[in-house]
Amino acid sequence: MNYRKIAPSLLSAINDFERRDLESAKTRFRTMALFGASDGARDARISVLLHCEPEADFRHHADQGIIVNQRKGRVRTALLPIGQIDQLSEDPNVLQLVASRYMDIQMDVAAGVVNLPKFRTQSGLSGKNVIVGIVDTGIDSTHPAFAGRIQRIWDQTLKGSGVPEGAYGAELLPQKLAASTDTIGHGTHVSGIAAGDTTTYPGVAPKAEYIIVKTDLGQAHIVDGVNYVFRVAEDLKRPVVVNLSMGSHYDPHDGTDLLSLSLDSQSGPGKIVCCAAGNEGQDDIHAAVTLLSGDAAIRFALWPSSSSGPIKGELNGWYSGKDQFEISVIDPGGAQTPFQRIITSGRHNRDYSLPGGQVRIVTPGFDPTNGDHNFLIEIQPLTIPEEGDHQDLWQLVLRAATVTDGRVDIWAVCDTVFARSAATDEMKIGSPGACSSAVTVAAYSTKNQWIDIQERQHSETFPVNTITPLSSPGPLRNGIKKPDLAAPGALIAAPASGNATTDPRLVVAPGFYLNAGTSMATPFISGVVALLLERDPSLDPNGIKRILHSAGAVPGQSVGTFDPKWGYGLLNALGI
Amino acid sequence: MIWQKVDAALASELGSAQNLDAPQFSVFIQTSRTPGPSECDYLSKLGVPTGNNAQKQIFTATVSARDIHSLSDQSWVRAVRLSRKLQIAVNT
Predict the structure, then answer these.
(1) Cα separation, A260 vs A147, whole angstroms
(2) pTM value?
C-alpha cells in the first residue's frame, strides 16, 4: 500500500475495515460512494477519484475488478473493491486516490450574498432562449455542466477555413465539439459561472445556451470572435450576452481604442458585452503628473514578470492634444537619452543605446481617433534584475514644451512597474473594460477559506464581504465612470477543464475548482444579463446598465453613488 | 506612407520588420467613412472580410509591412493600429 497516495479520510476508513471496526467504518463510509457493504465485506466496492498521469492506461487492472471509467485525463473516476485500493495505489501512474463523496447541493456562498437564488425563484428566470457567448481560452465541452447546450465553437487556434468573420480557425458544430479543448481552464471556469447547469456549483443562468470562441487573445481576433457570436445569435434569433474576462493597458484608457470602439458599434438591443475591470488594484502600473513648465522625472523598475522570453520594459503615455512634451529616459547608471519631441513627419520612433540597455522612444503626432498625444517607450535592459529588486531604477523624464493642460498619464506594461512613490491608485481599467457600452465588472470577495477535495484546509489573506483588493479601480482617463458594478469574484467555485492542469489545493469537488479575479466576477454579471434578456430580449446596453446601476449600492452610500473601486456598488439581484 | 495614421506600437514593430511582404502584422483598420464598393474591393484583396459587415468602420486583418504602407496612403483610412494580445483577468 502506498499510503502517501491515499487521501486521509479514505485511508482512515480502510483502516477501520482492516481492524474490522465495522461501526466506525460504516460511519466514515456513510458519506462515501460505497456499494455492497451492508455486511462490511472486504469485497465491497468503492467509487474513487483518481489523480493520475493524463495518458496512463489502466485497462490491465480490470482483472482485479478495478474499472477506470475514462481512457485519458488527469482526473478520472474508478470503481473498485476496497481490497484493491492497495493494488491501485502501487501503480506508478497513480498520483492520488480520493473517495468519491455524496455531494450536497452546494450553491456557492457567492450567489446568496447577492440574493440570486431568491430572485430566480421569484422570477422563474433561468436564461432560457438566451445565448451566452464566451470568448476565452476554450471550453471542456465534455463537462456535464455544459451538456447539450453548446450551439457551436469557433476555435481560432485550430487549422481550418474559418468563418465569415475571419478566414482562420475551425468552426465546430455539436457533434464535433470535443475537437476543441481548453488546456488553460480559464474559459471552462468562466463558462460555468455564467451558465453552468449542475447541482454541485450551479451557474447564474443554467438554461442559457453557449456559443464559444476559443481565441489566441489577440485584440483583433477577439473583435472577430464577438462579431461571430453576435452574427450566429442573430441567425438563431436569440438575444446574446458576450463575456470578455480579459484586459490590457496598451490603450488610451478612455474607450477610444479600436477594440472598444468596435464593441460599441456591434452592441445594441439584445446584444450586450460584459468586460472585466482588471486585476491591477494592488499593482503600481499607473503614474500621473501635472507639469505646466520645466521637467519632471518618474521612476520605474524593470523586472521579469511571469511571462517567458527576454525582459522588455514598456511605458504607454497619454496627454492632451493641446500640449506638447519632450521625452527622455535615464538608465540606472545615470546615462540619459536626448529629449525627443513630437515627430510629425516620417517615422516617429528613434532608437538610443545607453549603457543600461536599448531604448526606443516613439512620439507620434495627434492620435487620429481621440486627438490626444501618445508616447511609447520600449526598453531592453542589458542586465536582468532579480524579481522584487527595485534598486536599479530607471527614470522617465518629461519636459514641458507647449503646455496648457499639463496632465500626463502613463501606464507600465510588460515587465515594468513604477516606484511606489510615483504610482497612483486610480485609472487602472484598460481595454476592453474601458469600452463605453460594455458592462464593466469589479470583483467582490465572498470566500477566503476553503477545504479542498483532499480535506485539507486553506485560506487566503484578503478580507471577505468587501471589494477584492486586486480589483482595478477607475475612472477612465477622460473621467467616464468605470467600473459599472461589483459582483462576487473571489473565491468562486466552477467547472474545471479535464485538459488543464489544476492546482490540487483549489479542487473542491470532482470537476470543480476555485479561482479569483474580475475574470470570475464578469461571468457572474453576464449570467445576470442573460436573465434580464430572457425577461426583455430588446434591452440595449444603456437599458441593462440603468437596471444594474440602480440594483446595488456602495456600502454606506445611497443608491446611484459611484465609487472608483465599486462602481455603483455590489449587485443586489432583488433590485433588478 | 503616412506615419501619423500608424499608432506608436505598430510604428515600433514596423521599425523592426525584416520582410516587407510577409503578412505578419495583426492590425485594426479604422476608416473615416463606411467603405464604398471600390474600397471594399481594396480591403478584400488584403484579406479583410467585408461581406455583411459593410456598415462598419473598423476592420481587422493580418497584413504585411507593404500593405500597411499602402493602407496608410488611402485617403479614406483614418488609422492603422497594432492588435496586441490581452491577458486573462485571473489571479490564482
Answers:
(1) 33
(2) 0.86
